[in-house]
Design brief:
The structure holds two protein chains of two kinds.
Chain A lengths: L2 H19 L1 H21 L3 H27 L1 H4 L3 H6 L5 H31 L6 H26 L4 H28 L4 H30 L2
Chain B lengths: L13 E10 L2 E11 L4 E5 L6 H8 L7 E6 L2 E2 L4 H6 L1 E4 L11 H11 L5 H11 L15 H13 L5 E5 L7 H10 L9 E6 L2 H7 L2 E6 L2 E7 L5 H12 L4
Parallel strand pairs in B: 3-8, 3-9, 6-7, 7-8
Antiparallel strand pairs in B: 1-2, 1-4, 4-5, 9-10
Helix pairs in contact in B: 3-5, 5-6
Classes of the chains: A mainly alpha, B alpha/beta.
């Protein structure tokens, strides 16, 4: 089987497991919707203020939703030693990284696909623009590139829930700021050309962290 | 003292050269040199913390040695890690099975990982062999510990490995499951399967092994053939080598 067939087999296994328990998607979705609801209730009355703070609310919510999602990513692998079972299989460690990363990307995109329209509905801010949808996708790829690596790293530690945000959030600051900027400019009706620089930063971040995480994953999961 | 047997032309099933493993300031393995011939059953005894599990994990490529290397069927693990893994099956006290998936889904997943041809037939064949066909489509989390361990044996045998690593497999296995495991171990291929068993159980080890090794504080302190040993002798050798009662 090729690299991608095995990656898809890992993702399919995670998807099947998630469909049985709905542990990740439902808990992250409830968290995301609650945060959105709280902020829109707090600022929603003032349309102008809401438009100003919307990008920050959106991306703070997605960043913390990512932390919540990644903190669960390697938990099933640690139960009953399944990660060791995977490591004993004739696949490269990169297959494990790509498979787990693809699962996390899928779960995050499902949450965001529900959260974005919900945010638009509650806040009455037009966040369903092509620019914001695209920046959500590329920023999530960056989140997943970093989050999957740190999720594997923190899975071996006792204080997993503490370690992951401490490692993850400082690293994703560059794409978090870029995503907020893109969203801000998109909401003020700026053309695509004015967003290009920020997209470039996010794209470069994604490429660098996908490559670095892919290369160092072996050292992270092997004791 | 090193015991060898088998034709010299074929590469040994496993050859380790100076394997060491350091955890922080603790040295778990101190230069392990072993040569296990094709079809040989090697039993590793040793007290807790002797390094048995660490050695099994290194041979299964689950963890890397701090220094030294090893080869399986003449294939060096550094240059051919995936070919080495393809030749190895492992059973430990952990099942390596996902609780939210059914036993069948677990076995199908692992057979995809190991590129097992005729997956469906192979899974049913093993389930039948283990007497577990009737629970094949139940979620693993709903199965008893003993049943999970039986499916764990099936998982390890899926790809017909030429080398089987067993780390304290008695844990969680009932007598029937143990009997099935011992029956399945010798191998389904023309070639006899090589077995490395780490255990505390001197009696069981003596029954299964044709070569016995005692590991203490990360070093091999005894290595000899089974044929010159009975249980009383082994107990004495074990006591003298490790300073511990089994």
């Amino acid at each position: 089987m090729t690299f991608w067939n095995k990656v898809i087999a890992i993702t399919w296994k995670d998807w099947l497991s998630e469909m049985r328990t709905r542990e990740v998607v439902s808990s992250v979705l409830v968290f995301t919707l609650l945060v959105i609801l709280i902020f829109t209730l707090a600022f929603g009355a003032d349309r102008e203020l809401m438009t100003t703070v919307a990008p920050g609310i959106l991306w703070a919510t997605f960043a913390f939703a990512g932390v919540l999602s990644f903190s669960r990513s390697f938990v099933p692998e640690k139960e009953h030693g399944c990660l060791e079972g995977l490591m004993a299989a004739p696949i490269s460690r990169e297959v494990i990284y790509a498979g787990k990363g693809l699962s996390s990307l899928l779960f995050m995109l499902i949450v965001e696909a529900i959260a974005l329209p919900a945010f638009a509905f509650f806040s009455n801010v037009p966040v369903l623009s092509p620019q914001i949808i695209l920046v959500t996708f590329v920023t999530t790829v960056g989140f997943v590139a970093v989050g999957t690596l740190f999720s594997a790293l923190s899975a071996n530690t006792r204080a997993r829930e503490m370690v992951l945000p401490v490692l993850f959030l400082p690293i994703v600051i560059p794409i978090l700021i870029s995503a907020i900027k893109v969203s801000e400019l998109a909401l003020t009706g700026e053309p695509w050309s004015n967003l290009f620089t920020w997209f470039q930063i996010i794209g470069a971040f994604d490429l660098v962290f996908l490559a670095v995480s892919y290369l160092v994953f072996d050292f992270v999961i092997v004791e | 003292m090193t015991a060898k047997q088998g034709p010299p032309s074929t590469p040994p099933a496993i050859r380790t050269e100076g394997l060491t493993k350091v955890f922080g300031s603790r040295m778990a393995l101190r230069g392990i040199n072993l040569e296990v011939q094709q079809g040989q059953s090697l039993v590793i005894f040793g007290p807790n913390g002797a390094g048995k599990t660490t050695l099994i994990k290194i041979l299964a490529t689950i963890t890397n040695p701090s220094s030294g290397t090893f080869s399986v069927d003449g294939l060096d693990v550094k240059n051919h890690p995936e070919d080495v893994r393809r030749r190895i099956g492992i059973v430990t006290h952990q099942t390596f099975l996902y609780g939210n998936l059914t036993a069948y889904e677990n076995l199908e997943f692992y057979s995809r990982m190991f590129d097992v041809p005729g997956r469906k037939e192979r899974i049913h064949e093993l389930a039948e062999q283990l007497g577990m066909t009737y629970r094949l489509h139940d979620r693993v989390a709903t199965l008893s510990r003993g049943m999970q361990q039986r499916f764990s044996i099936a998982r390890a045998l899926l790809h017909k490995p030429s080398v089987m690593l067993l780390d304290e497999p008695e844990t969680g296995l009932d007598q029937e499951a143990l009997a099935i495991l011992w029956k399945a171990l010798p191998g389904e291929n023309e070639r006899k399967r090589t077995i490395i068993l780490a255990t505390h159980n001197l009696e069981r080890g003596l029954e299964l092994g044709d070569r016995l090794v005692i590991l203490d504080r990360g070093k091999i302190v005894y290595d000899g053939l089974r044929e010159v040993m009975d249980l009383r002798n082994l107990e004495e050798v074990y006591r003298n080598a490790t300073g511990a009662n089994n």
